[in-house]
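Protein modeling request. Please complete all fields; requests missing the sequence field cannot be processed.
Requester role: graduate student
Desired output: 3D structure, token encoding
Chains: 1
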Amino acid sequence: MLAKVGGFLYRARISALCISLTIVIVAAVFGIGVFSFLSSGVYGADNSNSTRATQLLNSKLGSSSPDVILLLKSKSNLKVTEKSFIDAATALFSKIRNSKDVASLTSYYDTSSRDFISANEDETFAILQLKGQDTATKQNQYTNLEPLLTSNTLEVQKGGTIPINIALNKQTGQDLERAEVFTFPILALLLLVIFGGVIAAFLPLLIGGVAIIGTFAVLRLLTNITEVSFYAINVVIMLGLGLAIDYALFIITRFREELAHNGQNVRRS
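Delivered output (269 residues):
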């Protein structure tokens, strides 16, 4: 069976190559956007005790993980109860509430609760909930909202689940790029020594790259069905390159053994 498949691919090698390149390009264009849809919140199974406890707390007491937390501090050391600070904070909150992506905003100026201000009264925070029903939607909503989270009078620091997710995804992408810059040249040199040829050494990298790109596209599809942790990217890179090197070494070694046994049993044109 494998001989027949190999013979067919050889005869249709141009068509097979064109189809493969088309699939890889489509997968690359579609899959490269997966970083924007990954989540850092997938830590437990839906039926685990910790997950059920979190769901119970959220249903009885409200969400225990605010989407966004805004920490406000005056650039001129004003107290949160001074008129200039109140005016600046009120103007900022008004812009935020007018956004179509915001479900609610809770602050000291709404509740008069001193839990929202620091002991020396120079800082206050606000809790912001977005309208999205899933992490990916909320991340997109926060990206649209972020340009509004600024003030000429106040220093505005952002925290909460959604900004953390976005920051982690961004850092993961940067770390992967940095790892590729340093790892691939070293890996290519080692493969050149191990495989003893440029083409043979390039094959595992090519296979690994195709596998990684294809898996990114699959992960992108999965994000439409369920949450996918950003740690999946690290697993994809590790397994994609590892398995590509392993199987390429196996295939090339067997090919060379057969070539040494009968060098005439290879189609060359």
